[in-house]
């Protein structure tokens, strides 16, 4: 099949050209045959006479049925007879063919026009090399030649026909998750668990899908899924990682960091989770140093990323609360250059340049405009387009 | 297969060009061989267009999304019926259907026209060739349905949910058979003008074509009206919307043409007028195509989004309407005028019919085009709706309907109005009785309702009177009368049926306009409401899932006098996922000839739902009337007298005669 692909393509194209040639040939014949065969003699008068005869017969029928009276019938017959007489008086004789030479030229041109016009026009607007691609056939072709999209569609078609194929759901679920179709991923994981039984991987995947569908928040439902995964396999990295994320989202940063640390220690060499865990530990650490409790630490990159996946209204509310907390903390404890930078940036992100400027002024006042830290802070603010009042 | 269809379409275009030139040249120079080219080329052109159409349909059936048109208008989960009908549920596909029907009619003229005079046949086919070539070029240049996508998507965008209905399978093909059927009349008219003479066979040929086109157009309009009624969910059956008017104008003009063609066939009178009507009717069909297909209707500014299509159809329109009218102005004077007749005669009645119908057409034309022109010139948006048409179209139609029963009972050439009046006495008495009954027992206040119902009864009884008179009612015994009735020409039945149908439609219109009841209320599950003596119990909403939509189904029970559930109605709100579009499916219970119509609105806060319920008395008669008119057309079309006698059929006809003759 793999090798047959291009051959099939060539055969299709060949077949198309053969059909096109046959059609053209047939069409040309339709023009050519009448031009070369012997015409029937024909007279317009004969046709008219035929119509009048029919009309006379009709009057006879109507009269026989009593639809019209005898006098009326006679009158009508006389009228038609007058028409017939007029016809004969006209004495139109059949015209002899004129312009015989011109006729032959036009006939030849017409026969030639058929292939010339059709092939000429088709050559400019057609796509002869593009075979038909019925959906079913596309879904049946060699998987190696298919795009991910096609593979997914094929699996979907298969599952629509066999919804109880647990393995199909199992294969499809992580693909859905990776391509961002979280809601479908949730359904697929649920089906896989229902049909094939629960495993730690499936439960953890379900949790991740629920979290992703919920805009990155580890909800109680997602947490339950991760916990079931851990119950099935005590050291499951993904489940442990996200349970720690859940702690962090609740503001229990220290506990989260501890959980990640424990996870990092237990991870085998070369685990794909190591990098993510180490980043999480570092982020939690910086948050812990920024504020004792993590409360009011201001939005971290992670928070903002998470917020980006939330509904717009929730997102704004979340960021505003965090920024307000940071602002409050800096008023009490102003010797925090990093905090001031974050506050200015946050106000700019929220579209509040006046408050950003105010924060810059307050920060410079606290840090001292001439100090090394103050200068760096002013420079940073300048890159965001915020300038201090002189 | 797709590309074969594309190639066949291009080849059909080449054939149309040959068909436009060669037979015409042959007819001018008297070259029989060249005239003979028309027939086979027309048939081949039809075969190629049909192949092309089949290829597109196949692409829809197989969900071949490498065809851009399929991707834009189909979905792999759509039920098979809508995959097929989706072929013409879009601009490109519907234009291909238009041309398919055009070439079909061209081929029919070629096949059945072997007994036409050769020059007439050649000219008719050439004119058909011009129309075909123009529209094929239009398709190839601006609206090609075979444009391909190199890297095809895996799923289509689905068809507009409103179109996912059985209506799409019937309405557009019938409407197009009507629109395009008039092209044959047009071609005959232009051919006669080119030749400078009207053959005796002309009227005999034009009349069945007019009849066939009119029949399909009637069916198409009636079907479209019923579709709008049940699918749009607000219970209206006619909105005087420009798209509807676009189909109604050719119908009015076609009805006029149908009647004037009778005069021409029977009496050789009104020849030039019939010719002009044939041109005008098809011109209005073209105008309709232009209004609907150019996008000018949704907004005049649609020209800006795709100017090429609008401008192209406008060019075709100008070319054909302007050209044919110019030819008419040039040649009409040289045509032999027809016979004379007394004003009080059947011809006279038909002329009256023509006057009213053409004036009515002009009214609709003004009402349709004026807002468009105004918007194009000044940018002001005005809406010319029902009030305008009620004031202008209604008063024009009423007197026409009053005189309808007189036509068939008047004699040709010289009629007797007093005698005709006497013969219609019974029908008149019946109508008067109906007026009195409505005034006294139903609604004394509404003069419109009483007179309207009287008019409808007058039409219905008038049609029956015509049949009774022609079968000799009152002058012969019952047995003989029955024999005569059976032996009446089919065209007499056709006339009576068509006029009967007009009466039924009038009755339905008056009934629903005068006695309709409407209620809008919020209902919670378990609540009941009453309308027109019927009690409806709301069972509640249940979610359901269709192949490509989800829906909330609202179930209602119709309670009879004893409190028992008699039948149920289901109205639903659907949501089509691919297009993210909601639709409303009305719940309709037919209690013949009236209907109960339920439509779901928005949910209310206290978990109820807004429900609109209409009681529509006699409403089904509106479309039943259309159906009866259509049957009338079909019966009349079967009348063998309409066929042009061919020399070879002579013997056959003579042999047939005693069989059809009457024993009296």
From TrEMBL, chain B:
<feature type="transmembrane region" description="Helical">
    <location>
        <begin position="490"/>
        <end position="515"/>
    </location>
</feature>
<comment type="function">
    <text>Required for the biogenesis of c-type cytochromes. Possible subunit of a heme lyase.</text>
</comment>
<dbReference type="GO" id="GO:0005886">
    <property type="term" value="C:plasma membrane"/>
</dbReference>
<dbReference type="Pfam" id="PF01578">
    <property type="entry name" value="Cytochrom_C_asm"/>
</dbReference>
<feature type="domain" description="Cytochrome c assembly protein">
    <location>
        <begin position="88"/>
        <end position="294"/>
    </location>
</feature>
<keyword id="KW-0812">Transmembrane</keyword>
<dbReference type="GO" id="GO:0016829">
    <property type="term" value="F:lyase activity"/>
</dbReference>
<dbReference type="GO" id="GO:0020037">
    <property type="term" value="F:heme binding"/>
</dbReference>
<dbReference type="InterPro" id="IPR003568">
    <property type="entry name" value="Cyt_c_biogenesis_CcmF"/>
</dbReference>
<feature type="transmembrane region" description="Helical">
    <location>
        <begin position="351"/>
        <end position="373"/>
    </location>
</feature>
<keyword id="KW-0201">Cytochrome c-type biogenesis</keyword>
<keyword id="KW-0472">Membrane</keyword>
<feature type="transmembrane region" description="Helical">
    <location>
        <begin position="206"/>
        <end position="228"/>
    </location>
</feature>
<feature type="transmembrane region" description="Helical">
    <location>
        <begin position="272"/>
        <end position="291"/>
    </location>
</feature>
<protein>
    <submittedName>
        <fullName>Heme lyase CcmF/NrfE family subunit</fullName>
    </submittedName>
</protein>
<feature type="transmembrane region" description="Helical">
    <location>
        <begin position="37"/>
        <end position="61"/>
    </location>
</feature>
<keyword id="KW-1133">Transmembrane helix</keyword>
<feature type="transmembrane region" description="Helical">
    <location>
        <begin position="618"/>
        <end position="638"/>
    </location>
</feature>
<keyword id="KW-0997">Cell inner membrane</keyword>
<feature type="transmembrane region" description="Helical">
    <location>
        <begin position="424"/>
        <end position="442"/>
    </location>
</feature>
<feature type="transmembrane region" description="Helical">
    <location>
        <begin position="448"/>
        <end position="469"/>
    </location>
</feature>
<feature type="transmembrane region" description="Helical">
    <location>
        <begin position="174"/>
        <end position="194"/>
    </location>
</feature>
<dbReference type="GO" id="GO:0015232">
    <property type="term" value="F:heme transmembrane transporter activity"/>
</dbReference>
<feature type="transmembrane region" description="Helical">
    <location>
        <begin position="95"/>
        <end position="112"/>
    </location>
</feature>
<dbReference type="Pfam" id="PF16327">
    <property type="entry name" value="CcmF_C"/>
</dbReference>
<comment type="similarity">
    <text>Belongs to the CcmF/CycK/Ccl1/NrfE/CcsA family.</text>
</comment>
<dbReference type="GO" id="GO:0017004">
    <property type="term" value="P:cytochrome complex assembly"/>
</dbReference>
<dbReference type="InterPro" id="IPR002541">
    <property type="entry name" value="Cyt_c_assembly"/>
</dbReference>
<dbReference type="InterPro" id="IPR003567">
    <property type="entry name" value="Cyt_c_biogenesis"/>
</dbReference>
<feature type="domain" description="Cytochrome c-type biogenesis protein CcmF C-terminal">
    <location>
        <begin position="314"/>
        <end position="640"/>
    </location>
</feature>
<keyword id="KW-0456">Lyase</keyword>
<dbReference type="InterPro" id="IPR032523">
    <property type="entry name" value="CcmF_C"/>
</dbReference>
<feature type="transmembrane region" description="Helical">
    <location>
        <begin position="6"/>
        <end position="25"/>
    </location>
</feature>
<feature type="transmembrane region" description="Helical">
    <location>
        <begin position="311"/>
        <end position="330"/>
    </location>
</feature>
<feature type="transmembrane region" description="Helical">
    <location>
        <begin position="393"/>
        <end position="412"/>
    </location>
</feature>
<keyword id="KW-1003">Cell membrane</keyword>
<feature type="transmembrane region" description="Helical">
    <location>
        <begin position="124"/>
        <end position="143"/>
    </location>
</feature>
